[in-house]
Design goal:
The chain has 134 residues and is α+β, with helices and mostly antiparallel strands. It has a domain of 83 residues. A hairpin with a 6-residue loop joins β1 and β2. The longest helix has 27 residues. The protein is rod-shaped, with a radius of gyration of 36 Å.
Length: 134
């Protein structure tokens, strides 16, 4: 009788394990996921712009002062791009506006210095540095 009773216990334990396994499977089947998910990795080269037709607009009263700088880019930056120039290494950055790749930069005042006139002048303008960030 002992062998028969041991056999029944093994079958009962197996049936219980199978029932628990099916119940667990039912819970995991209730998860839902969106029909489509995405993942990716990519790289793209960073290219610069070609600057042309640079023009320094001098002040009408004092031609030693630069009122603005205008120039063209070889392609139009996207709307909202940051465009700035610097006229001497380590000097002030002037903000620019973009109209179809025709750029205009007001150099009458440094926007970062409140109450101080930092107009560009001809003598202090030693190089033109252009920064465009899309």
């Amino acid at each position: 009788m002992r062998k028969h009773s041991k056999f029944l216990r093994v079958i009962a334990a197996s049936a219980l394990a199978a029932a628990i396994g099916l119940a667990g499977s039912a819970f995991t089947n209730s998860n839902s996921m969106p029909a489509e998910t995405q993942a990716g990795d990519g790289a793209r080269a960073i290219t610069g712009y070609t600057v042309s037709n640079v023009h320094y607009v001098l002040n009408g009263t004092d031609p030693t002062l630069v009122d603005s700088v205008t120039y063209d880019l070889d392609s139009t930056p996207i709307a909202g791009s940051t465009i700035e120039i610097q006229l001497a290494s380590g000097s002030f950055w002037y903000s620019c506006t973009n109209v179809a790749a025709a750029i205009s930069c007001d150099t009458t005042d440094d926007p970062g210095t409140v109450g101080t006139d930092e107009q560009a002048d001809v003598t202090g303008s030693t190089n033109l540095r252009v920064v465009v960030a899309d």
